[in-house]
Automatic annotation (TrEMBL):
Keywords: NAD, Oxidoreductase. The active site is at 272 (nucleophile). This is UDP-glucose 6-dehydrogenase. It comes from Populus euphratica (Euphrates poplar). The keyword RNA-binding does not apply. Its EC number is 1.1.1.22. GO terms for cellular component: nucleus. Residues 328-453 form the UDP-glucose/GDP-mannose dehydrogenase C-terminal domain. InterPro entries: 6-PGluconate_DH-like_C_sf, NAD(P)-bd_dom_sf, UDP-Glc/GDP-Man, UDP-Glc/GDP-Man_DH_C, UDP-Glc/GDP-Man_DH_C_sf, UDP-Glc/GDP-Man_DH_dimer, UDP-Glc/GDP-Man_DH_N, UDPglc_DH_euk. The keyword Cell division does not apply.
Amino acid sequence: MVKICCIGAGYVGGPTMAVIALKCPDIEVVVVDISEPRIAAWNSDQLPIYEPGLDDVVKQCRGKNIFFSTDVEKHVAEADIVFVSVNTPTKTQGLGAGKAADLTYWESAARTIADVSKSDKIVVEKSTVPVKTAEAIEKILTHNSKGIKFQILSNPEFLAEGTAIEDLFQPDRVLIGGRETPEGQKAIQALKSVYAHWVPEDRILTTNLWSAELSKLAANAFLAQRISSVNAMSALCEATGADVAEVSYAIGKDSRIGPKFLSSSVGFGGSCFQKDILNLVYICECNGLPEVAEYWKQVIKINDYQKSRFVNRVVSSMFNTVSQKKIAILGFAFKKDTGDTRETPAIDVCKGLLGDKAILNIYDPQVTEDQIQRDLIMKKFDWDHPLHLQPKSPKSAVKQVSVTWDAYEATKGAHGICILTEWDEFRTLDYKKIFDNMQKPAFVFDGRNVVNADELRRIGFIVYSIGKPLDAWLKDMPAIA
Ligand code: NAD
Ligand code: UDX
């Protein structure tokens, strides 16, 4: 029986390994992590992450051919294939701060592999890493190898949160990069045979190591660029009376452009896009390509612009101040169907409103009060000025924030509503009931274009929808970005 060990039981390691275990009953998988609470949660009925379909998959194979453990050394030592799926955040200090990937966790995992291995192994980069990381890892492993042979493969993960199980069941492609040596090719075939249990052969792409590593950064950069492009258009739509949804539809009908990933929003969030683009920017700069670096940086600048444009619109529409006004925030997660709040645009929007002394009442179906409070007092990491002193964290802000478990409760007595996540339930709320319980004039600022604006206007709301023609009210109170 082939034994797989995955280091890192997070959003990627957990679901990816659960699907491998489900689809490959002949393989034993152990997912290890240094975090005891995380492993305890994977072994309980309350999994550490919310992901549609995940519970089912885990229940079907946990205790049969997938196990979760904190005994990293034992399970790494016993494995034939070791996936490394640890976090690779942006460096916040030192050389490359604000852009470069922090590979501390990766290096520590690699050293553990080198220390405890007693047999040859295939080591798979599952984390998103800078191009050429495999070379550094090879050095760590071979310099500490005691004669053991390691083959490094790059097998970046393309799943998106909220649809992880679907994406893993039916991936557009699986990418495996390896050395162009006979041993490298053999390792590629070994990993290919794992995925071949359920992924059609023509969807398993094999490349050299550096192409696989760079393809992951490139894919995320291209996806994020589409969102920043449509968000840039949304500002122009508001200025001209065009409707961004109609523009997206019209351009998406061009088969060369395609319809996906063209929804205008309050900004993209999530743990990947900003981090991976900054990483790409840093790699370009290190390779003497400042123009290319500047090009990709613009994707993040537009994203920041979109978030502050939204805040400015809220404040300017409400007579240029939200001080002591109650604002209901519907949705805090970075997208629907996840409880993940990493880099969620809601953090920046809430902080912007708190900066103008608003009182926030927040509701998200999957994010806990604790998480929201932590996110709002955490110092904002300023990627553009990482070395400057950060402003003191606004501890007092927390007092201005309450969290409810119901959209109706959150909107009671509010002056305005900001919709920041596209949860399906926000489309079908009883907005008449909500309107009746709000202060007047009652505002809705729809950062995800989920509500039927015309219907809400008929009820009496003043509605702002990203990138859509403005109400007369909003036209009279232009937001200064
Ligand atoms: P995560 O923070 O959810 O999980 C990482 C886990 O690794 C944590 O539980 C941490 O405790 C553990 N860990 C860190 N160092 C360790 C060590 N030395 N030994 C054992 N465990 C250790 O991160 P994630 O969202 O799963 O992302 C992991 C990687 O996958 C990142 O590089 C990310 O860029 C990439 N990725 C993420 C997504 C996504 O949607 N989240 C998608 C594709 C790729
Ligand atoms: C992304 C990539 O899609 C995935 O392939 C990669 O493996 C990890 O990073 P994820 O961040 O989980 O996945 O979610 P994604 O669906 O890409 O959404 C990212 C952000 O973009 C969210 O905040 C989402 O709301 C926003 N978005 C997405 C838009 O604003 N408009 C769109 O049209 C699509």
